[in-house]
């Protein structure tokens, strides 16, 4: 299949052609991996309690997806199609191990908080999905663009959900107290006026509801995204 | 009445499509149909002409809730003065008798319950209006009942802004995203309560929220409750029994029954959420609902039966004081009766088939008792049990209908 694709390809294409730019911009909104394709939901629910965790998770996924898409795209003509899933898995697994080791070495406290979820990037559907749907049939450069687009699309949803959850769940953003001091006995700011943090924001169900609200807003702005039944 | 109708009809053209006030047509229609039957007529198919529309049905429920509301107001006042009376040097010691100080208690109750009502109706109706404008329909009637139910299932000391946030959450996420009145999966009022329960647990449970002004009493008494005073509800006392292994079960139970006399509990003279304490007031409401045909007797009866049977089952198992508690207690403490009559019977979220209603009510009542007795974290199970059965109701209906289809197919084949 990959051979036929190569034959029909135009001989040369500028690096930032319209088509290549679309590969990056599309997954940001109209083809977002989380809100439209509904992939990678598990990690969006699990590690969005704080913005910091969400940021490192996004960076890890960015690294794995870009390197993975690149490797698969380079190898695409060598991989026998019958065992391609196994080859893809080996690539993801090795990349995830690299990310995990790096996080443990340089940001150990974050690595501790993300715990098992870094390892679970292997099962993140976005990554296998992009390998299978894009990198297996496209040249390295477009594959990198596609990986960037999808990681950014994943990252901004993750960061937005984490922002809402951290702000209303613990009254902080990136660890800075926004609403005032919440220590018992010495409340200040909003807490002195009787404000209480929303405990439900810390529970995973609320992440699902926040993602749902983002999907709701997105689809009411662009009616073309609403599926027919 | 006639003059008002004439006046309103004179205004009609101003709100027609294309006229000056077209945008406010939903608001206008809402207001006129409060007083008069809607003027639009069904155009297609056979139809029955009846003055009882959704608005009238909902009003029946609001009327049925009034005994609970009135009793709740008085009960709120009573428990406020009861806990006040334990302060050293308090002038309210006589008020520990339930009927003493009637006027003071009513006034205090009004001052606490009315703001809850205002916030619940204000926030909920404002959101309904906004969605009505956006979607171009008149105000949905469903909120009339939810707005009344929400204050009745709150502890009296819950901060008003929390009630507002919970109401907004319940109306938007619980109802409007599914398409508004008649489309919701979960009971709106219970969604509001569940939101508060998980979002602000300190305001919804514990022993500082059930009697109005407990926090002030604690502050006035150097940071602790005065001797002899307690802020706990019957359910909280029972909750403590689950883990109390040092005292003998029968002794604990005796103490509990001395404190919460069954007659008092039935009348509602116990602390609890504003409107849920009085089983008697709930039953008066149930009579109104059944007489007007608004609620389903199947759900109410099977709910009580489920709770009672599971209570008996717990008695048979035995083990701790809570298991050994006479089964009828489950029906008269906490929000059991209130949930059975006003929450489980919500026609939108309950099962629709006759047999399905029996199963739905029975399981909801049973699960409520199971959560109460078995779950170590939740003292009250009625809310979660009904929400759970709301989710299960379509499945129950599905199997009831499939069973019916199978039975009839069999008859067809044998004939």
From TrEMBL, chain A:
GO terms for biological process: sodium ion transport. The chain crosses the membrane at residues 54-75, 87-107, 113-131, 143-164, 200-217. Pfam families: Rnf-Nqr. One of its GO terms (cellular component) is plasma membrane. Keywords: Cell inner membrane, Cell membrane, Ion transport, Membrane, NAD, Sodium, Sodium transport, Translocase, Transmembrane, Transmembrane helix, Transport, Ubiquinone. Its EC number is 7.2.1.1. Coiled coil: none annotated. InterPro entries: NqrD (IPR011292), NqrDE/RnfAE (IPR003667). It is found in: Cell membrane; Endomembrane system. It is a multi-pass membrane protein. One of its GO terms (molecular function) is oxidoreductase activity, acting on NAD(P)H, quinone or similar compound as acceptor. Its main location: membrane. It catalyses: a ubiquinone + n Na(+)(in) + NADH + H(+) = a ubiquinol + n Na(+)(out) + NAD(+). The keyword Transport applies. The keyword Transport applies. It comes from the Bacteria. Belongs to the NqrDE/RnfAE family. Composed of six subunits; NqrA, NqrB, NqrC, NqrD, NqrE and NqrF. NQR complex catalyzes the reduction of ubiquinone-1 to ubiquinol by two successive reactions, coupled with the transport of Na(+) ions from the cytoplasm to the periplasm. NqrA to NqrE are probably involved in the second step, the conversion of ubisemiquinone to ubiquinol. This is Na(+)-translocating NADH-quinone reductase subunit D. The lineage of its organism: Bacteria, Pseudomonadati, Bacteroidota, Flavobacteriia, Flavobacteriales. The gene is nqrD.
TrEMBL record, chain B:
It is found in: Cell membrane. Its cofactor is FMN. The chain crosses the membrane at residues 57-74, 113-134, 146-173, 185-203, 327-345, 357-375, 381-401. Keywords: Cell inner membrane, Cell membrane, Flavoprotein, FMN, Ion transport, Membrane, NAD, Phosphoprotein, Sodium, Sodium transport, Translocase, Transmembrane, Transmembrane helix, Transport, Ubiquinone. GO terms for cellular component: plasma membrane. It catalyses: a ubiquinone + n Na(+)(in) + NADH + H(+) = a ubiquinol + n Na(+)(out) + NAD(+). Its EC number is 7.2.1.1. GO terms for molecular function: FMN binding; oxidoreductase activity, acting on NAD(P)H, quinone or similar compound as acceptor. The modification FMN phosphoryl threonine is found at residue 233. InterPro entries: NqrB (IPR010966), NqrB/RnfD (IPR004338). It is a multi-pass membrane protein. GO terms for biological process: respiratory electron transport chain; sodium ion transport; transmembrane transport. NQR complex catalyzes the reduction of ubiquinone-1 to ubiquinol by two successive reactions, coupled with the transport of Na(+) ions from the cytoplasm to the periplasm. NqrA to NqrE are probably involved in the second step, the conversion of ubisemiquinone to ubiquinol. Belongs to the NqrB/RnfD family. Composed of six subunits; NqrA, NqrB, NqrC, NqrD, NqrE and NqrF. This is Na(+)-translocating NADH-quinone reductase subunit B. It comes from Lishizhenia tianjinensis.
């Amino acid at each position: 299949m990959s051979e036929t694709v190569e034959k029909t390809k135009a001989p040369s294409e500028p690096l930032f052609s319209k088509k290549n730019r679309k590969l990056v911009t599309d997954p940001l909104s109209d083809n977002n991996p989380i809100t439209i394709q509904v992939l990678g939901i598990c990690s969006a629910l699990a590690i969005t309690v704080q913005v910091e965790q969400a940021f490192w998770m996004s960076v890890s996924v960015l690294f794995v997806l870009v390197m993975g898409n690149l490797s698969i795209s380079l190898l695409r003509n060598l991989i026998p199609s019958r065992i391609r899933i196994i080859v893809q898995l080996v690539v993801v697994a090795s990349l995830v191990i690299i990310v995990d080791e790096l996080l443990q070495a340089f940001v150990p406290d974050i690595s501790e908080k993300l715990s098992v979820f870094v390892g679970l990037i292997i099962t993140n559907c976005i990554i296998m999905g992009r390998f299978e749907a894009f990198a297996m049939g496209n040249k390295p450069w477009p594959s990198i663009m596609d990986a960037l687009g999808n990681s950014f699309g994943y990252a901004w949803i993750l960061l937005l959900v984490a922002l809402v959850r951290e702000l209303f769940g613990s009254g902080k953003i990136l660890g800075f107290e926004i609403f005032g001091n919440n220590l018992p006995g010495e409340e200040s700011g909003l807490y002195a006026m009787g404000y209480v943090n929303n405990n439900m924001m810390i529970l995973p169900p609320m992440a699902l509801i926040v993602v749902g609200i983002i999907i709701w807003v997105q689809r009411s702005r662009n009616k073309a995204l609403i599926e027919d039944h | 009445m006639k003059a008002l109708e004439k006046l309103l009809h004179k205004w009609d053209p101003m709100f027609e499509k294309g006229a000056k006030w077209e945008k406010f047509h939903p608001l206008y229609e809402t207001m006129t149909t409060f007083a008069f039957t809607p003027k639009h007529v069904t155009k297609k198919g056979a139809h029955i002409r009846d003055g009882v529309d959704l608005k009238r049905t909902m009003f029946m429920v609001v009327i049925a809730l009034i005994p609970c509301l009135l009793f709740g107001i008085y009960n709120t006042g009573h428990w406020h003065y009861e806990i006040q009376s334990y302060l050293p040097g308090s002038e309210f010691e006589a008020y520990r008798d339930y009927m003493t100080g009637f006027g003071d208690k009513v006034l205090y109750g009004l001052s606490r319950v009315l703001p809850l009502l205002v916030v619940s109706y204000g926030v909920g109706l404002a959101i309904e209006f906004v969605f009505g404008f956006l979607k171009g329909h008149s105000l949905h009637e469903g909120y009339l009942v939810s707005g009344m139910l929400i204050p009745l299932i709150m502890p009296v000391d819950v901060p008003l802004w929390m009630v507002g946030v919970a109401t907004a959450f319940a109306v938007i996420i619980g109802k409007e995203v599914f398409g508004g009145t008649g489309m919701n999966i979960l009971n709106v009022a219970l969604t509001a309560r569940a939101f508060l329960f998980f979002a602000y647990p300190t305001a919804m449970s514990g022993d500082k929220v059930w009697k109005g002004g407990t926090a002030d009493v604690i502050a006035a008494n150097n940071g602790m409750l005065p001797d002899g005073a307690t802020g706990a509800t019957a359910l909280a006392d029972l909750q403590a029994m689950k883990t109390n292994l040092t005292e003998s079960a029968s002794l604990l139970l005796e103490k509990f029954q001395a404190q919460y006399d069954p007659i008092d509990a039935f009348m509602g003279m116990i602390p609890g959420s504003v409107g849920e304490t009085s089983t008697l007031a709930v039953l008066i409401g149930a009579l109104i609902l059944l007489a007007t045909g608004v609620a389903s007797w199947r759900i109410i009866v099977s709910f009580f039966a489920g709770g009672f049977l599971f209570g008996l089952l717990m008695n048979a198992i035995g083990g701790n004081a809570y298991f050994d508690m006479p089964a009828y207690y489950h029906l008269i403490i906490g929000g059991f009766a209130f949930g059975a009559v006003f929450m489980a019977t919500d026609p939108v979220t309950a099962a629709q088939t006759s047999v399905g209603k029996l199963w739905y009510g029975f399981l909801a009542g049973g699960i409520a008792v199971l959560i109460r007795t078995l779950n170590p974290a939740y003292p009250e199970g009625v809310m979660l049990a009904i929400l759970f059965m709301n989710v299960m109701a379509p499945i129950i209906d599905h199997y009831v209908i499939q069973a019916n289809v199978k039975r009839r197919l069999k008859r067809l084949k044998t004939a």
